[in-house]
TrEMBL record, chain A:
The lineage of its organism: Bacteria, Pseudomonadati, Pseudomonadota, Alphaproteobacteria, Maricaulales. This is Cytochrome c biogenesis protein, transmembrane region. The keyword Secreted does not apply. One of its GO terms (cellular component) is plasma membrane. It is found in: Cell membrane. One of its GO terms (biological process) is cell redox homeostasis. Keywords: Cell membrane, Cytochrome c-type biogenesis, Membrane, Signal, Transmembrane, Transmembrane helix. It comes from Glycocaulis alkaliphilus. The chain crosses the membrane at residues 311-335, 356-375, 395-415, 436-462, 468-490, 511-529, 535-553, 558-576.
TrEMBL record, chain B:
This is Alkyl hydroperoxide reductase/thiol specific antioxidant/Mal allergen. It comes from the Bacteria. It comes from Glycocaulis alkaliphilus. Pfam families: AhpC-TSA. One of its GO terms (molecular function) is oxidoreductase activity. Transmembrane segments: none annotated.
Amino acid sequence: MLRAFLAGCLAALFLSTGLAAAQSASGPMVEASLVSDRSSVAPGETFRLALHQEITPHWHTYWRNPGDSGEATRLFLDLPEGWTVGDMVWPAPSTYRIGPLTNYGYEDQVTLPVPVTVPADAEPGTITITGEGTWLVCEDICIPEDATFEITLEIGESVDDANGARLIEAAFALAPQRGVDIEAGLTHDGDALILSLAGETFAPGPDGIRELYFFPHDGGVVNHSAPQPARIEDGFARIDLTPGFLTRNAINADYTGVLSFEAFTGRNWQRRVIEVTAVADEQVNDLAAPAPVTAATGGSGGGTPAPAISFWQAALFALVGGLILNLMPCVFPILSMKALTIVQKRGAERAHARELGLIFGAGVILTFLALGGLVLALRGLGGMEVWGFQLQEPWVVAGLAALMFLIGLNFLGFFEIGTSLQSVGGHVQGNDRSGAFLTGVLAVFVAAPCLAPVMASALAFALAQPPLASLTIFAFLGVGLALPFVIVSFEPRLLAFLPKPGVWMERFKQFLAFPMFATAIWLVWVLSVQTGAAGVLWILVLFLAISFAVWALRSPTLLSRAAGIAGVLLAAGALWTTANLEPAAIAAGNGEYEEWSPARVEELRSEGRAVFVDFTAAWCVTCQVNKLGALADNRVRSAFAENNVALLRADFTNRDPVIAGVLAEHGAPGVPFYLMYPADGGEPDILPPLLTETIMIRAVEAAAGN
Amino acid sequence: MAISRRTFTLTASLLAATALSFGAAAHAQPVIGERAPDFTATTATGETVTLADFSGQTVMLEWTNHDCPFVVRHYQGNMQSLQDEAAGNDVVWIQVISSAPGEQGYVSAERALELNVERGANVAHVFMDPEGVIGRAYDARTTPQMYVIDGEGTLRYNGGIDDQPRPRAGDPDPIPYAQIALNAVLAGEEVETPETQPYGCNVKYVD
């Protein structure tokens, strides 16, 4: 009997030591200590003890709600008679994504304070407090650890302990603020769980607040791994959560949690955390649903960027963006066509010029609306809504190149359509109207890929809005693009500055053929990047067939008509062939740049390097301008080298869902797009679409932590 | 303990790969009171079984990873006694191993059976789920995580084995949620707490 009992004890002992051996084989993953903010305490005062953890790199311990798995750190104190202890203070957690699961916790180091109150009648002298800490520490596997502590304090005067006080103050600085006046409510909206928020905190709106995320204190309230799209509008916010098992069918209690976001201080973005209580079945604002989040890729915070401008700002930006589009390199041919029309209409009746101007404007705006509708339709189909996408289609590029080539031929006088020189003098022709309208259509089509800086945020906003609002933004882009020309058509005094008509006009028109050909050459180059040598071959065949068809059709005989039709068929065949070519692998002509992949970014970042990513495409003119300008600048390149910045290039010339996903995640409507990841592992900086040497050097220094 | 450190890179590429599918539908949500997700599983003894094969019997699914400290702790007697009691009530007890190759808890079929002999485990089947297909269908997050399916094929319990992530000396006795649910189903009663927060190690899914 006794023997059996002893054997049982031994077995228990063996099992527990076996467990202990299992976890200490590689040494503890957490160096833990018990610290105090006082070396000597006064009777009646409340001071703080804290469990301080130094965690092995890449491992983490857990927050009060560990998320999908894991276990919160705990501290048990053995206090003398009459001493009382309060609740643990938890600094704001980070988010860890492991496969389909999400955890909340801490890495590197964390200090977890508890308030301790000394009884008023405590006798002066020396006292020893013992405690035990238990925690789970995980990388991809988990190890439960524990430790016992002992701390000796004097009772008498209140004296700070410098080291303990420093750690504990830092923990309080990172802990959620309490008592901030925020109303919060939790309601259902279909399958979603809506956290509605109201308070002065949200007054800055999306300009001053981003990365909004809710960490519930308890498990089961939300699905931790679901994205949390958010909308912020002056004084109100709304986060769309996915319910957990506690809230799926009904919200039976008020739930507390931590609201985490980044606030703009005027110079930089700083994380803030606030404790809120979400009242069951209460809705404190009526904001519309935020745009869905397409991707969430690790890092801390885990919030989603909300569109950072208000509706009217976006409309204004869209207008200015449209105006700027007039000055972009790829709109130049269109501008020259407009210039030509203006020159031709000199002396025409003003009313007619106005009419043409308005028709052109209508063409522009309607085309923008049509494109906007298309984007919305694609978004509805779950397609990637990325601007400039039409130039990712080889057949569009080829068709556009052929069109430019044809216009060039026309300007050189190879064939005539509609207006000829004789019609300068102002015969009203139906052709003028349709010509003006088509000019408008063409202007939009060619301008779209040129992302003017301001257009980026307006588009990001448009894509995250309900359909009507997005279409308004698109319309404003069109207004901006058409405005200069419409003004000229309405203000004939501006025309007075133009020279008199004469033979030079014919020369001028011929000269304009060359920008057209230049544009065609650029598009052929884009196609060569997209489809390789075969694409170049077929587009040249297309040029040949088109010019032959035009030449043949100029003569009215049956034979030449037939030949012309044959040419048209050949042209269509060439275009069809181009459209069906396999996309070429992007040539690795990146020089100092490596090919981008999310994995490569993480790899380089884990080496503690800053990483610069250039999201670019052959059809993006601004990208080429940056590549040959700021990015090629010697000072910028030496700044890269001195700070050991890793350079990656993501080529978006052809479709790429991974790149499209990253663009969407950052709210970028297209390329150019530049990310600078800091060396210290923080969130990346988004650089403006038009780079300068100064911007680049500052960004490099900030990322390197200088 | 051997530590298979998964590199950052793998995590990152996994994130990238799942990023796009991660948006609207994070994962399937098995719903209490509805049909349990169907499965076609390969067992450690090489059989192929489906959920329909167990029609008329109560099924207990236990997600496991023999090296996870939480699993180790429950296999010091608690899990085995639950299994014995279930077997006595004609319950089909199934272990599911969703650890991917190279991850903690991944074992050959042979080793899985061996482990159960060593531990004195009493289970009807061990499902080899290295691709994580069954795990994701059931949205299994931790080891251990328990599911009870009644004879109609309806999911009646999903969650933790009990309410104590760490049984400690001086702690109250744990509330054995999974056992209570199983007994309610066997008695033909409603399960009072059909869903709880599972705890333990995360399931080591394939990248």
